[in-house]
Design goal:
This protein is of the alpha/beta class. It has two domains: 144 residues, Glycerate kinase, domain 1 (Rossmann fold); 210 residues, Glycerate kinase, domain 2 (Alpha-Beta Complex). Helices cover 36% and strands 19% of the residues. It has twelve helices and 13 strands. A six-stranded mixed sheet has the order 3-4-5-6-9-10, sandwiched between helices. A five-stranded parallel sheet has the order 2-1-11-12-13, sandwiched between helices. Helix 1 packs parallel to helix 12. The longest helix has 28 residues.
């Protein structure tokens, strides 16, 4: 039996790699040593995708950069085996997990620009993972670290944050070359409005209703000066508007993270070769099949006719999942818990459920052969 195990992270509890290894233990208990099990931990461009590329063989680097509120911290980035491509994850420098503060109006993406600058010293192309950021500065801090200058109405240069976006009256591009950047996103939100960066993601970063309105006004004003057309594009609102900065200031491109990650790690070939595919994430719901890692796996499983089983912490199941490449969904619990379980508890649950799943598969196969 050939089994491909390719989960996303179970956010707050297990990385994609740890989840894959837990699933492998359960599959091995059910199928024995004769099973050929391959692990390909996944990401979709959001927080944690760095672990997926690292598991696939990219080389880790570490750099001291500015954190979300200017504090210096150590952040990782990766150099791919081709020595021409680097991966930078915005959450490594500006992520919610890097700080206990929740004052997004004052947070900066400057450290992300520092990471890009460092990576560009060794690589020709930068893949930039967007997601999990504590910031709402429209990526202007990131741009500032790459040499952009932003000035107020009096001509004074300053480092914009979400609270001061409306003060931007002019800007200057750097003299030097900006590295080639392709941003990876797991969301399609535009920059402004009810489905924009402030309205959708601001509250989880600590923004109350008044702050959300402040941020959205600032983004509207600043983007009208820089490039209003780019503000309407899908993904412009990713990572507090960093997607917008990539498109409007850095001259980069932006696309679904899972597609690029799948290409880099050879996911389609692995799905086509497998007898069964096992994926998973913390919460499987309607959004899971819209640009997320599990949705990308489902598309490939359907294309190649490979049965896909999904393990999830909880599941708000959309019946259409069964028409989109998912064979069955196995939630670890049927009810939303008051608090997240610990890593050990989650890993044990994944092992046990994976074992039960493949014992069921084996039993079904034996029943078919007896007939």
């Amino acid at each position: 039996m050939r089994i491909l195990i390719c989960p996303d992270s179970f956010k707050g509890t297990l990385s994609a790699g740890d989840a894959a290894r837990a699933m492998e233990k359960g599959a091995r208990r059910a199928c024995g040593d004769d099973a050929r099990i391959r692990l390909l931990p996944l990401g979709d461009g959001g927080e944690g995708s760095i672990d997926c590329f690292f598991e696939a063989g990219a080389e880790e680097r570490k750099t001291t950069v500015a954190g979300p509120y200017g504090e210096r911290l150590e952040a990782r980035w990766l150099l791919f085996p081709d020595r021409k491509t680097a991966y930078v994850e915005s959450a490594e420098a500006a992520g919610l997990t890097r700080t206990a503060r929740r004052e997004t109006a004052f947070a900066t993406s400057y450290g992300v620009g520092e990471l890009i600058r460092e990576a560009a010293g060794e690589a020709e192309k930068i893949l930039l993972g967007l997601g999990g950021s504590a910031t709402s500065d429209m990526g202007l801090g990131m741009a500032a670290a790459l040499g952009f200058l932003f000035r107020d109405a009096e001509g004074k240069s300053f480092l914009p944050t979400g609270a001061t976006l409306a003060r931007v009256a002019s800007f200057e591009r750097p003299q030097g070359k900006i590295p080639a950047i392709h941003a990876l996103s797991d969301v399609e939100n535009q920059l402004c409005g009810p489905l924009g960066a402030a309205a959708v993601f601001g509250p989880q970063k600590g923004a109350d209703e008044e702050t959300v309105e402040l941020l959205d006004r600032g983004m509207r004003k600043a983007s009208s000066l820089i490039d209003p057309g780019k503000a309407e594009l899908p993904g412009a609102g990713a990572a507090g508007g960093m997607g917008y900065a990539v498109l409007a200031l850095l001259g980069g491109s932006l696309g679904p993270g899972i597609e690029e990650i799948a290409r880099v790690i050879g996911l389609e070939e692995a799905v086509a070769e497998a007898d069964y595919v096992l994926s998973g994430e913390g919460s499987f719901d309607r959004q899971s099949l819209m640009g997320k890692a599990v949705g990308g796996v489902a598309k490939l499983a359907k294309k190649h006719g490979t049965p896909l089983f999904v393990l999830s912490g909880i599941a708000g199941l959309d019946p259409s999942a069964y028409e989109k490449g998912v064979e069955a969904v196995w939630p670890l619990t049927r009810y939303r818990l008051a608090s997240l379980p610990g890593p050990e508890e989650t890993a044990k649950a994944l092992e046990d459920h994976t074992e039960a799943l493949f014992r069921t598969v084996n039993a079904a196969g034996q029943g078919s052969s007896r007939k």
